[in-house]
Amino acid sequence: MNVQIFPACVAATVALIASYWDLFKGRIIPDKLTLPSIFGGVIFYVLWGLVKGDPLISLYGGFGALFSFALAYLLWLTGGWAGGDVKLFTAFGAWLPVYSPPFFQPLFGDYPFFPLSILFNSAILSLPVVLIFSLIRKLQGKGAFYEEVKITELQEGAIPAELIYLRGGEIRREKAPLFMREKWDRLLAHPRRAAGLSEEQVRELKRLVSEGKLEDRIKIKRGIPFGPFLAAGLFVGLVLGDLYSLLFGYLV
What we know:
Elements: H1 5-24, H2 31-52, H3 55-77, H4 83-95, H5 114-139, E1 146-149, E2 162-167, E3 170-175, E4 186-189, H6 199-210, E5 218-221, H7 227-239, H8 243-251
Antiparallel strand pairs: 1-5, 2-3, 2-4
């Protein structure tokens, strides 16, 4: 049996479960799914390398996970991805650092670059949806990926698009910086927290509004769930390889 089949089946199963959670379970891809998947992929290649007597194969899962995490972390820093997306993509890299689809050899199929095929496929597939979503939001007079709401109507789990903190007894609010540096005495809203605002933070923000110390508004993220697009990019990659290579081949 081709050794690719088992990692591909595991990654596909994880992708389907993650998509279900992202779409129907409150836009959260749970750690109890992604973290065991990452470690499982790393352990699989360690064991397979021992069976084959090849130390390089034993490193496949670890390097694939690290490579995928580095790419996903950059997207997380820009605010494009949530923490669940990062861990899901890392799991794909741990299980599929290299892959050869049955019908077409991907441009990024060699170790450890198959995750690039998944990423590019996902970006190509999501582009029309993102453009339509952005247009609809624009016609509604709203931001494409951000929305301003009242703090008094805020709910736990909302992901802020700005930084709000206490420093020297003064409440400060800033745009979400690319790199976070701790400069506060007390943090009230953190745009990089994947789980969103905690119940305690929401309660504190509302208290400050009721005391007249904070304006009753906050920007929150209203993005598109990207987990299903990652899953679609994975499935296309498993069958066809790179959409980028296929499209480029047809155009030239």
